Amino acid sequence: MSPVQSLVDALKRALRAGGVTYADVARDLGLSEASVKRMFSRGAFTLERFEAVCRMVDLGITDLVRLQEEGEHRISRLSRAQEEELVADVRLLLVALCVRNRWGLEDIVREYAISVPECVRLLARLDRLRLIALQPGNRVRPLVARDFRWIAGGPIERFFERHVQDEFLDAAFALPEERRLYLSGAISPGSAEALARKLDHLAAEFAELQAADAPLPLAQKRNVGLVLATRAWELSVFAALRRAREGEGASAQR
User: Fold this and answer.
1) β-strand pairing of 132-135 with 139-142
2) In the 8-state DSSP scheme, what is residue 130?
3) Which of 42-56, 150-164, 191-205, 236-250 has the lowest mean pLDDT?
4) 3-70 fold
5) Residue 247 backbone zone (phi > 0: left; psi -120 to 50: alpha; other: beta)
6) CA dihedral sign, ordered 45, 49, 55, 57
7) Positive or negative, the Cα torsion across 156, 158, 163, 168?
8) Which residues are CB-contacts of 103 (< 8 A; sequence separation ≥ 6)?
9) Which of 14-18, 71-75, 107-111, 143-147 has the lowest mean pLDDT?
10) Cβ distance 142 to 132 under 8 Å?
């Protein structure tokens, strides 16, 4: 593979990781999508266009060369120690969530009572944790993959269980785009697995929409919470009325 094609392939990977499509590139460059596809397949970029596409994912050409040479991989999970460090400092966790949502330093200090020097220090800690790459001018490039997930039952999930669930559900859910659904019914194990797969697909679609909206100004976006859950369960007041099956009473007495 030629060095030019290798660099183009690195740019393709960066675009995919950032959720940027050929249609997005075409719109940004004022070209047809077919022209953009030909440009990538042939590696026929002008330097100006190549730099413009790099800027769509907050990369300079030198950054792209480094990614190409180092074969840098975005992380899909944190270690338990990393999660514990985040939850130990609520400001660090806040900034980590902001930059994951593609906020810049200016956005963070404008929206929250965090000074510029403090924000820079927090960003430097995230850089040491390899969650972001802190670049010249305090520009931030997230290093987490689009399919990033917290550790199941880990420090971050426990934090949200303690602080988020009651607050999140304590609302009317009355806006047109809001939903609160409770569904209950008896289904087979196979159907339950199919339902779980659909929830996985919806979570992936949420990540894709978030990535697609990342270039929009902060004023055109708002934070959205999405809870996806399914498990074998019955409301406790109903479960208390169930008849004991034969043998259960004897087991309880023993």
Assistant:
1) antiparallel
2) T
3) 236-250
4) 434 Repressor (Amino-terminal Domain) (1.10.260)
5) left
6) negative
7) positive
8) 111, 218
9) 71-75
10) yes
User: What are the start-end ranges of the E strands in the chain?
Assistant: 132-135, 139-142
Tokens 């929250």 label which residue?
Answer: 112
3-state secondary structure at position 77: coil
* Single pTM value for the model: 0.59
> What is the per-residue pLDDT for 110?
93
Domain locations in the chain as residue ranges: 3-70, 74-170, 172-254
Q: Of 117 and 237, which is predicted with more confidence? A: 117
DSSP per position, 13-43:
HHHHHTT--HHHHHHHHT--HHHHHHHHHHT
Question: What is the distance between the alpha carbons of residues 206 and 210, in angstroms, rounded to a whole number?
Answer: 6
Give the model confidence (pLDDT) of 8-66 as tens digits: 888 888 888 778 899 999 999 999 999 999 888 888 888 888 889 988 888 887 777 76
Instruction: Give CA 191 to chain center in angstroms.
Output: 28
